Amino acid sequence: MRDLRGLALLALIGCAACSQPSPPAAASNAPALRPEASGAERRTRTITLTPDNVSEEPWSLGHAQGAVVRTEHYRLFSTIESSQARRRVALFLERALTHYRGAIVRLPPPPMRLDTYCMANREQWETVTRRLMDPAIASTILQIGRGGFASRGIGVYWDIGLRDTLALAAHEGWHQYTQRTFAHSMPAWLEEGLATYMEGHRWNGAEVEFLPWSNLERFDRLRSAASSGSLLTLERLLDSSPAEFLKSGSESGLTYYAQVWALVHFLASPRSGHREELEGLLLDSAGGLFRRRVALVADSARLGLGKSTYLAYFNSDLGIEERRFRDFVSQIVATGSRERIAVGLPPL
Q1: Do residues 260 and 193 touch, judged by C-beta distance below 8 A?
Q2: Which residue has the higher pLDDT, 275 or 30?
Q3: Which of 26, 179, 239, 343 is most buried, by the most CB atoms less than 10 A from its CB?
Q4: Angle CA(283)–CA(243)–CA(259) in degrees, nearest 5?
């Protein structure tokens, strides 16, 4: 497989392949598809959707008619027929960004609008993918059975049903945000763990509420792996990349994602005593201090980024952390926990 640095792929609700995000936008000029409009369409005035300051104007992909929806922080290019559905996706992206920036610690806004493509069907998604990506990388991406990807701050999905499409957008949207905004890339286990942490949500009428624990797909897989004894060790988890699970099958990939979801919950929980360190790590990654701190450990111990990050920020004794994390997992998958997860409550 060719180097997929800067690329994140998600086959809902599991992962097909992922890698560390690319440097922020200032370091790369990602390609984008420009709105294509006929003369008649250009004369059509922009429709302003209140009260959320969302605007919509015609856009097309070949013969497929659609719209580009602009919000404060996003440009959503979509061929989904319903304007209401397009608007709902666009507003979801905005609410998700607010969640990213405040779920753990206050983080900076992206430096530019984030381009997102949500197509009506897979065929259109393939067309956009081929236009945006290098041919060799596109050939790998097009193996996705069901899902989408984020690369260089651009998200590209197709409509797989509102619920699953939005869960996908919440996950990949985190990658979009960090790819454009963070000065330094985080290790795969943390980048993907945070993306899964951002997935959980539910709707209250027209408003969405983000609840990190509200994720039955991740929880059920975690419980199944714990029951069957197939959980990865903490050391293996820190050293692994999601791309490694492409060849070994979807079950191992699902387990990886369930465990990094649980690991971020562990680090964010008062029970771990690591919440402050997690906040500091995110601020360091966004601000550009992360590599310097991790390098001190990596150089002295000759370790990879994943393990060095954990040792530098959380605990230099992985044996102790392994036992504490295993105990945390045992507690959250205990009998009665699923009912709390279902309504977005912490299981502990």
Answers
A1: yes
A2: 275
A3: 179
A4: 60
pLDDT band at 245 (very low <50, low <70, confident <90, very high): confident
Highest average pLDDT, of 145-149, 247-251, 308-312, comes from: 308-312
* Backbone angles phi and psi of 97, in degrees to 5: -60, -40
Q: Which residue has the higher pLDDT, 42 or 71?
A: 71
| Structural domains in the chain plus CATH codes | 7-183 (3.40.30), 216-342 (no CATH)
- 151, burial (CB in 10 Å: exposed 0-12, middle 13-18, buried 19+): buried
Residue 316 has pLDDT above 50, yes or no: yes
Question: How far is residue 90 from each of residues 76, 95, 160, 214, measured CA to CA in Å?
Answer: 6, 9, 16, 21
Query: Contact at 8 Å (CB) between 107 and 123?
Result: no
184: closest CA among 299, 287, 293? 287
Q: Whole-model pTM?
A: 0.87
Long-range contacts of 273-277 (CB under 8 A, 24+ apart): 274/313, 274/314, 274/315, 277/313, 277/314
**CA separation for the pair 55, 335 (Å, rounded):** 48
Residues 324-329 have a mean pLDDT of 97
At residue 29, the pLDDT reads: 34
Number of H helices, E strands in the chain: 14, 11
Question: Tokens 């009912």, residue?
Answer: 339
Q: CA nearest 288: which of 153, 179, 182, 178?
A: 182
Site of tokens 């290019």: 77
pLDDT more than 70, % of the chain: 83
Least confident of 129-133, 219-223, 298-302: 298-302
Give 221-230 contacts, CB < 8 A, sequence gap 24+. 221/14, 221/254, 221/255, 221/257, 221/258, 222/255, 222/258, 222/259, 222/261, 222/262, 222/329, 222/332, 222/333, 223/333, 223/338, 225/255, 225/258, 225/259, 226/329, 226/330, 226/333, 227/333, 230/255
